[in-house]
Design goal:
This protein has about 325 residues and is α+β, with helices and mostly antiparallel strands. The chain has helices at about 20-30, 80-85, 95-100, 125-130, 160-165, 205, 260-265, 305-310, and strands spanning about 1-5, 35-40, 65, 110-115, 120-125, 135-140, 145-155, 175-180, 200-205, 215-220, 220, 230-235, 245-255, 290, 295-300. The strands form three sheets. Strands 3, 6, 7, 10, 11, 12, 14 and 15 form an eight-stranded mixed sheet that branches. The chain has a five-stranded mixed sheet with strand order 5-4-13-8-9. The chain has a two-stranded antiparallel sheet with strand order 1-2. Bound molecules: ligand MTE.
Amino acid sequence: MLIRIAKASDPASSEITPRSVYLDRRTFMAGTAGFATLTLGGCKPKAATSSGPGTNAKLADVKEGYRKLGSADTLTTYDAVTSYNNFYEFGTDKEDPAKEAHRLKPRPWTVKVDGLCNKPGTIDFDDLIKPHALEERIFRLRCVEGWSMVIPWVGFSLGDLLKGFEPQGSAKFVQFETLVRPAEMIGQKDAFSLKWPYVEGLRMDEAMNPLATVAVGLYGEVLPNQNGAPIRVVLPWKYGFKSAKSIVRISFVEKQPENTWKVMQSREYGFYSNVNPSVDHPRWSQKTERRIGDFRRRDTLMFNGYEEEVASLYAGMDLKKNF
Ligand code: MTE
C-alpha cells in the first residue's frame, strides 16, 4: 500500500510495478498538484532465504488446527512472511515494518472491550488469551494489491474470544482498533499517511464464522511485531487489510463501523472486502495474484478458496455492490 496521486486518467493496471510505485510516492511527497488519494500498491519482496522459524519465543501446546490447502499451496517462507509486510504504522514500504517495528513494546498490553456487551472491561493480554487453547491454522492471505502468501498462524477462534464478553442482541457489528503510539510507531508521525487509529470491522455473523481467527503467533512462535504483535485478527476470505494488527480495543456496535481504507478512499475499498476475482479494483484486475516466492501469477479464487466455509454469510447479497 502506498500514498500516491491518482489521476482520473490512470489506466487500470493488472500488474503493479515497483518503479511506478516509487515514482508515485515521490510525486506525492513533492506536493504536485492533483487530488491526493490513498491507494494500495506493491513492490517486490526481498528474496526469501530460509523457511524455518525465527528467534521469537516458541509457543507451547499448539494443537493442529485448520489446514485445508490446495495442491499448489506451499507455506510462504518465514523470512518472506516477516520481511514483506503492510503495517503503515511503521511506514508505507513493504520493508519498513521489519526495519522499524523493533520499537514497539508488545508488553504490557491491554485490550479495552466496550459497547453492547455484558462483560466490558480492560483486559491484560495474558488474561485475554489464557482461556483459549492455541491452534496452528494455515491460511492463504490475499492482499487487495494482488499478492498472496500461505501463513501458519497460531491462534484461536475469534468467535470464542467474543462470546466471552457476552455481546448483546443489539450488537450487529464488531470494531477493532489498533494501537496509537507514535514514539514506537514512526509511521504515525507521517502527516500524509493514514488516519490513526487504524480501524476495521466485521458483521457479528462474520466474526463468529469458525475461520475468523485471533492470531498471537506464526510459525510456532510469538507473533513478530511487524505482523501485528501481540494480537491481531486473520480473516482469510477477505482482503488482507481487514485483518487489523496490534489490537487495543474491541467494540460491539449496532451500526456498521468505519474501516480505515474505506474512510481513506471509499470508491476503491469497501467494508466487506471479500476476495472476489470478478470485482476488479478500479485501477487493477483482481482476477490473478502473485504468490510471494513464485514467478508466475495464479488465478484468484472466490473468497480466497474458502467459499464452502463462508459463502452462506452473503446469501442474497449483491457482492458487486457490497464490495
Ligand atoms: N493493520 C494495521 N494496524 N495497519 C496496517 O497498515 N495493513 C493491512 C493488515 N492489517 C495493516 C493492518 C494489510 S493491507 C495487510 S495485506 C495485512 O495487514 C498484512 O499482514 P502481514 O504484514 O502480516 O502479511
